[in-house]
Structures
1.
Amino acid sequence: MYFLVFVSKRLILIHILAVVAIQLFLTRSVSCLNMTNAYLHHKCYVTQGKYEPGSEYEKHLTSITQTMRLTSDLSKGYEMNGFSWGGNFVSVMVQCRGDSYGPKCRSCFATALSGLRRKCPKYKGGLVWYEHCLLEFSGKDTSYQIDYDNNLCMNNPKNVSDQVSVNNSFGMKWMTLVSNLTSIAIKKENNDLAPLYAAGERSFGTYKLYGMVQCTFDIGEKGCRESIGYNMVHFQDCLYGKRGARVLGRNCNFRFEIYAFVSNSLKM
């Protein structure tokens, strides 16, 4: 079971854990887990208001999404398109997980498109997260800006055992893993293959610790590091002492677990 903690510039984070026996089973089953595109959460941008049926806003939003569905192969897992007219603006952004590009990304985009329209009907803006992608509609230009408000934390309420958390060693391990993965993700030589994405694993006693970080392409290397660093501190009460956690945001997301949840993770 996951618990949610929302971020609106003053809040905190965490995720899920497993026993070593379950860990081994889940490690073998990573390919199955990786195929599950579960809905995670959504947020409607209420302050942007709603559009009228048949309005210019609806026409341009529909045009952008249809063009993306028909012409984009999403081979790099990210696309953002916008249109402005008479002082108005509409944009659509999709970001897929680093191991879910191409056909899998297109499939998640179609699912998220349907899901966001259903969960935020006629709202000019909104954001939805699925396991393999995130999708945003917006009536404002949000590109190249760090979003400190639209973030949340999902965690498992179970704490790490006293033996494992001695001297906060578990917390130090996952923080180090996420920090190292962030450094890998922002290296320019990696960006041609999977922009601002990295996944890895490292041993921790009888456990293996798995992690993943990803940022949207528009905020760049500096924004990626800043966004992840901000959320690690901002959600500390949700993250620390837990067996696993994930943070979802408009600009970045990261996750740590004691079981494998993505393919092709680096040994750290």
2.
Amino acid sequence: MKNDSLEEIRQTIDRLDQTIIDALGERQRIVRNVLANKMENSKEIRDPGREEKMMESIRKKASAAGMDPYFLEQLFREVIHHSVRYQTNALVDHQNEKAENSSIKVAYQGTDGAFSHQVAMRHFKQRYDEVVCVGFTRFDQAAEAVEKGDADVAMLPIENTTAGSINDTYDLLAEKDLFIIGEEILRVIHCLMAPQKVELDNIRRVLSHPQAIAQCSHFLAKLPRCHVESYFDTAMAARKVRNDGDLSQAAIGSAYAAELYDLEILKHDLANQKENYTRFVVVSTDEVSCDPQLNCKTSLIFATADEKGALLSCLNLLGDHGINMTKLESRPRPHHPWQSLFYLDLEGNTEELRVADALEKLKKRAQYVKILGSYPVREGKW
């Protein structure tokens, strides 16, 4: 290889990369067969002892191959997370009599190429032969499609690590008769895109969704003489930029949207915070039951009596049952001026005795309680 040209070396690397991809694909096919055996024999989907022995072996093999043991350990832990994710979803489908379903219709806010469209495909593509995604202009329209039976589920963003909570989704969860049955986390990488490669100084107008604009505010503040305009959705903004063909106009969206609408990326990774993630929830008219072996969280809404220490009393009740709370959010309570609804995520499953007991006691202590559902925790970093 010493005398090979750069192009020949790159071709060799490409072949090695393809070998890695093929091996991961074969590994995943074997995982499917192993899962069928586990479900038939009621075995746990995770074996922590085997996983740690596997990591020990990988670290030794990494050193022998001249590789960084830490790097390979982290890489294989992500491979395991992917495997567990697939097995978890398959087990939930099996327990809720959905394993035989070959297709699913998903409502989301936006159009083809939107982050919500991207995350819907990612969440369901390995579980169903056909995933039909239907875009709507607003979040409430996507939720109503599920209520009316025009879609099986909706994929709704609920919080972002840069811009915070998405209040429209929280309000819909309080208003609608819907349950959370899953979650997905997407690393959001915003790109500035235009019909052709142009200098940033030439851009006079940038279109995007308000959340994307908020997440990229530092970058946008540095663009001279540029008007920033809110649009329905990142992908819709990209499509408009493509259709208008105006070289002084750009959109902020995903690289997927740029590819879909044949736009040139002018700048990559624009967010104020580089570790920029959005959490999405999957909502349905039917709740799901989760096996106690699964790592789950439970989401709920509650309101307290208007008296001193009422909120603290409710939270202490959960703490006394050994329940860890992972998120607490307040929103104004509709039709009750100056009162709040509290949105709470906690570790655990309503199938667990301690969680069920705590929630029953909470219903007696709080003024109002709505259980939004228990569902598997999204694990892994990617």
3.
Amino acid sequence: MRRRWGQHFLKTRDMAWRIVAWAGLQTDRPVLEIGPGSGALTEVLLEAGYAVVAVEVDPHWVEYLQRRWSSESRFRVVAGDVLQVDWRRLGLTEPFGIIGNIPYEISSPLVERLIRYEGAWYRAVWTVQREFGERLAARPATAAYGALSVIAQLRWSIELGFIIPPGAFRPPPKVESVVVRVEPRSDVPDAVRAPAFSDFVHAAFRHRRKTLLNSLLRTPPWRDRADAVARCLEALGFSATVRAEQIPVEAWPALWNCVMAKSKAHRA
């Protein structure tokens, strides 16, 4: 079995059917499949009645998929990197569903793509490294909770599905995988869409052993707003020694709005 770009291929139809069934995608909406590889999920999706556009980076598998389903009008494979192609130019009626067995190394960049194309998709179902999935869904005051947790949960509802053991793939990865289902939230705070909000959250978590204030003091340009952050933490009922991982997800937009307001007032 050919393997490149960190690919691990599902071995059985039973597992592919289980993933597609749990995904619960709408059969009357098209599906963007990310990294179909040898077509284990593709086969099940087509049998279940979906129209599928698959994006595959490996020319070998592109050719294989084209040959295998050359007479299937509901299937089309696009040669390219899903992190580079324009999802809105794939000919998919929006909003579309997304599914894929994701190479572990593109999990984080794929989050950025999902954010970029919000509005184009209604549900995404990935098979990812278990540790990454747990970071997406992590709760405050846990080891897995971080900037990724905050940014993802403020934008999407996230549900972890079932664990997939390494032996379900060929070749087997070294760690367990998990199926994750995400859907865009309808109540995304305006602060979350601010260009610098993500930078602020990442800066707050950058030094996990430090307090939130000390972490920001080590990261320009936030070090110049430390006084505003301290006053905002107090206004929101947090101690000056609070760490980023102790701040609940829903409190981050309020903290951001407060810091921005006090920073503007100070400059004025």
4.
Amino acid sequence: MAQKILQGKEDIYRGITIWTERNPVTPAEAPEILKRSIEQWTAENVHGVWFKVVNKDAFWVTILIANGFEFHHAQAGYVMLTKWLPTNKTPTLPRYPFTSVGVGGVVMNSKEQFLLIKEKRGIYLGWKFPGGLADPNEDIFQTAKREIFEETGVETEFETVITMRHTTSISSYKNVGDMYFVCAMKPKDENKIEPKRCPRETSACQWMTLDEITNLPSWEFHRFNKSILDAYLHWKQSGRKGFHMDKFEIPELRRSWSVYTAD
């Protein structure tokens, strides 16, 4: 009778992915089955092993660590571990994504007033443009619309991307960078622009004129926010489309993107 080997899906890079929920074994059986599987994968010249452990099979984690696997990433419901098998080749397993995406929005109404907020907590509590982290599966402009509405109650429409900030490390997470896009937005309905602050996130939100913003002290409106405002005014005065978005599709590859192009 053939001895049990863990079954998975091979990829074009000579890797294999194992899902614990598709390979039901007991904690007592697991160490020996893993040993046999590694021996077979090595003989078959498999390079990288991806091992997805779902919550109910958490016993696998200590067994995998004892056999040279390393943590790769975790999400709700599972943890992924990896092992590079060849001893004579440099590991080429890709790292997990290491850049977070945030989006803010500059909203100007027909009276040339700008929508600003103050956050309830954080290292900076002065006036700023609304914005926050993107959710999974959101386009940049969708994040801007959602964050503005959540923080101010004002519905908006996307016009263009006016600037972005990039840092290679943020204090919240180890080895994670940050990209923060700022969009030019406009009210969806000028008759429905009364700000309604989010009691959970914002301590204040209101419309301000350019003169009112200019007269704010630096600790109430810091230099990065001023640079955003300058970029917006420059775009507005130029009359150009700016870094605008178009949908791009390649049906034969079943791919679609939001493509941003400078005008």
